[in-house]
Each structure stands twice: as C-alpha cells, then as structure tokens.
Amino acid sequence: MFADEPRRVQNRSMNETVILTQPEVRQLLPMRDCMDLMATTLRSLARGDGTNPLRWAMWLPSKRGLIGMMPGKSGEPEALGLKVVAVFSGNHGTHLDSHQGVVILFDPENGVPLAIVDASEVTAIRTAAVSGVVTELLARDDASVVALLGTGVQARSHLEAMHEARTLTEVRVYSRSEANRTRFVERASVRYDFPVRATASAEEAIRGSHIVCTVTSSKEPVLHGEWLESGMHINAAGSSVKFARELDTAAVVRSRLFVDRRESTVNEAGDYLFPLAEGAIDESHILAEVGEVLLGTHPGRDSDEDITLFKSLGLAVEDLAAAHYLMARAREEGVGARAALGGLVE
Fold first, then answer.
1. CB 47 within 8 A of CB 35
2. Domain check: are 263 and 229 in the same one?
3. Pairing of strands 337-339, 286-289
4. pLDDT, tens digit (0-9, with 9 covering 90-100), for 280-319
5. What is the pLDDT of residue 90?
6. What is residue 320's predicted lDDT score, i.e. its pLDDT?
7. 69 in a structural domain
8. Domain containing 296: what range?
C-alpha cells in the first residue's frame, strides 16, 4: 500500500493548489490592477452574473471577535469559492491585522481546490481598490485633499487607492492614538511626494477636505454631518455590521448614498440602518449600486455641489476575483507554494 503513494501523487493534475502568503499577495496584486479588476467584477455583478449571498458569522462571547464565512461565485472572472475570516478588533494597535483568514478557490467544473490565499492582504487591497473605483466615479475631478480617519491597515491601502484615483495635494490623518497618527504620517511621508500631516481632531481633518475615508473600528460615529461641505465625497469602509456605524445620522441624510450591494446594505450596514430606524431616511435613500454606475444605468454625481457617500461592506465576489487573478499570476511567475489537494477516486 505504501509503495503506491508516490505513484498516486504523481498522477494528480499538474494544476496543483496554489498557496500564497501575505507578502506574495502584496507582490502580485498592485492597487491599479486591483481597481481595474474590481470595476470589471462589479459590472458583472450588476448585470446579474454571479452569486453573492449574505455573509454568515459566528460571534464569540461578548462579541470580542467572530468567525465569518463569505461564499460566492463571480461572473467575470469566473471564480467559485469562499473567504473564511476571523475578525478581532482587539488586534488594532498590535502587530496583527484585525482580519485573519484565507480565500479558497474551487474549480467551478469539478470542485477541486485551486488556490488558498492569505485573506488579510486580499481584504486590505480589494477594499481600498473598490473605494478607489468609486472615488474615480463620484469624487469631483478637482478633488485633491484627502482626510483619513483611522491609521490601520485600511488607512494605508486607502491612501494608496486615493493616490491612484486622484492627483493629491494634501492628506490629513486622524486617529484617537497620537502615537499611531505620528507613525502613520512618518511612513506615508517617506513614500509619497505630497504633504501628509496629522490633525488634532477628526473635525480638523475633514473641514476643507474633498475626499473623506473612514476606516476605523469605532462602533460610534466618528464623522458628523455638520462638518461636511458641498462637493465632498466619502468612502465609509470601517464598519461592516448592523450594530456599529462611523457616520452619524445627519451625515447620511446630507449625502447621496451609493452602495456595493443593496441586499448587503439593508441587512448589514449600521451606517444605513441606524438613520433608517430613526425615520430620518427611507429605502429610496440608496440611489444605486456601484456596478450600476459603472454600467451607466445611473449617472452617479449630479452636480459639483453633491455630497456623495459610498457605503462599503465588502463582497465575496471581490475576494474571489482577486484570488483568481492572484492564482493566474502566481502560476505565470512561479510564485507561491503548491500542494496536491483534492479527493481522488482509486
């Protein structure tokens, strides 16, 4: 029996499962490429291609963390699989990302595992890439000043995406931790040729800015409607649960709301559900999905005076499209490990 083992392994398909680590994902998935990929994926979803069910989560006691599962099938590119992720907000401020997990791809023809990809970096890049796509769609052409609320992984990737989406002249950064603000500014100032400065308050960061990215772990609003000015664009990407929000009700009421997926928003987005429950908005406040704007079935920004808001929750099809792209590049460039996974019939 044991003598047969090497022969059976050698008879497997040459398309062995690709395994990619966080640094390899970062190497193979440039922000611009991911932005273009996310635009294609969201267009496809808006056309009705693919399947993106609501995510499922198992909370740990006292909601200190969760295990989440996001299955789906993207239409373009065709990719089948799921993301399994552990979210621990207590990791903020440590050496660990708050999102830990893997994206698993399966062959849509026979179910064989095709790839296992680090989910932390996929989530970091694709979330910001979608915000970058939306910023290109909805922000004013002359938008050049960015306010970042938050200094974690998503702040880093969102700054890169905003740099791709618009020509920036200034970036203002705020988080509750002065040490984190200082560290973020020091690192960003080395990488970019525009001024990056810390502010003493969220209000100081936001007033006079053109693009606002909220990428915090806060359960209470960090952005208030009274601070908003005509022409702003907001990417709200920090909260993805119904019991937390980054924007207060006034901010949502003042904004023209766009979402990645209606079904996800009405079930999962505290930024939308709180003002809805208060009676401050109704269901019509969701103007369109991003894919509809990309397809041209909704105009997006109507005027330079609009305050536009993108509520980002993150979709399985985004993770799967990114993993599919990474798998192809890894095979082309010989990057990553390989494992012979998948059940065989003797």
1. no
2. yes
3. unpaired
4. 999 999 999 999 999 999 999 999 999 999 999 999 999 9
5. 80
6. 98
7. yes
8. 126-315
DSSP assignment of 51-80 equals E-PPPEEEEPGGGS-EEEEEEEEETTTTEE
**Is-contact 172 209, C-beta < 8 A?**
yes
Which pLDDT belongs to residue 63? 82
The gap between the terminal CA atoms of the chain, to the nearest Å, is 12
CB burial string 105-123: b at 16+ within 10 A, e below: bbeeeeebbbbbbbbbbbb
Residue 108 and residue 147 in one domain: no
For the chain, list residues with pLDDT below 70. Answer: 1-15
Give pLDDT, residue 5: 39
What letter represents residue 293's amino acid? V
**Tokens describing residue 256:** 């023209």
**Rounded to an integer, what distance in angstroms lies between the CA atom of residue 238 and that of residue 270?**
11
Cis amide leading into 23 (omega within 30): no
Q: What is the pTM of this model?
A: 0.93
Same domain? 311 vs 192: yes
Nearest residue to 247 (alpha-carbon basis) of 266, 279, 269, 265: 269
Q: CB 71: neighbour CB atoms within 10 A?
A: 18
